Amino acid sequence: MITRENNPEYLNSFLDYSMTILNKSPNSIKEYNYDLSMFLKFIKRHYNLTQEEEYNKIDIKDISIETIKKITLNDIHAFLSYMAIELKSKPSTRARKASTIRVFFNYLSQKAHLIEINPAQNLETPKLDKRLPKYLNLEESKKLLNVTENEDNRNYKRDYAIITLFLNCGLRLSELIGINIQDIDFSEAKMTVIGKGNKERTIYLNKACLRAIGEYLQSRPKEGIKQDKLQSNKALFLSERKERISRRTVQYVVNKELKAAGLDTAKYSVHKLRHTAATLMYQYGNVDIRALQVLLGHKSISTTEIYTHVENNQVRNAVESNPLADE
Predict the structure, then answer these.
(1) With pLDDT > 90 as the criterion, what percentage of the chain qualifies?
(2) 271 carries an active-site annotation
(3) Count of CA atoms in the C-beta half-sphere (13 A) of 291
(4) Which of 90, 134, 256, 271 is catalytic?
(5) What is the dihedral of CA 135, 141, 147, 148, to 10 degrees?
(6) Range 4-111: architecture per CATH
(7) Over the stretch 287-323, which tens digit does the pLDDT of each residue have?
(8) Taking phi first (over 0 means left), then psi (-120 to 50 degrees means alpha), and beta for anything else, what does residue 5 get?
(9) Which CATH architecture best describes the domain 138-311?
(10) Is 274 in the active site?
(11) Ranges of each domain in the chain
């Protein structure tokens, strides 16, 4: 990804606006920067403004606002077509690019007033394939927890607490690594996490979570914790280096425990544990779809609806339970 120093001024202004006014997270800002630099490189090549053949070496800093004013909806469609045909990008990837472009041109036209016509005003989002989420069933989930709790390694209490939180609370990876000890209220059995868009939400903790966290805290290092910009001294989960645990370490832990439980690591991952938590709560807990939306931190109810899928035997049982079944 290019650095901000290589961006045109209007792009950096958009990134600043997204961060300070829209309150987008650092990860979202990085994605915006990446998506738009890619789009502007395409525009420069599309308009024959460069002879550079290597895409990554195309300079976008000299793309003037006058060039931006010439961009049409057809140009944006050409970019999305390039992604689909040349880059073999998935519909979800193209949908994200389209969303970023839409927000970007809305800023230029409605907020910064740098362009008069918004070419992305009628830009549609690429249609996404609706796929059922992969998840562990109840027995597989219990097996994973049992294997992790009884594994013979010095970090087993930490690893067990991580797996327990994923399977019980449906946390995102970024939310788990961001948990600080002070975010947990043991007396009220709840904790605060920071989700997408820096949005704060409350996660309620059941007995399994409270026990796992409590036992881990007894073994959590008390001394030698790094004083760094990650605020490792405040972090709930620490690495072997006594610093806030990283995304890669958590992914390694989950992958290791899945293997130990005899589960397919090509099929399951950290995010699949989030799917598992949501699915189990919906299937066994009679959870209202909107309550599940709040718990998972979904902006749109349509995102939560993927967890309302049911097994074929549930469909059969529904029919068999019809009061007219024996008539």
Answers:
(1) 62
(2) yes
(3) 8
(4) 271
(5) 80
(6) Orthogonal Bundle (1.10)
(7) 777 877 887 888 777 777 766 654 444 545 555 555 5
(8) alpha
(9) Orthogonal Bundle (1.10)
(10) yes
(11) 4-111, 138-311
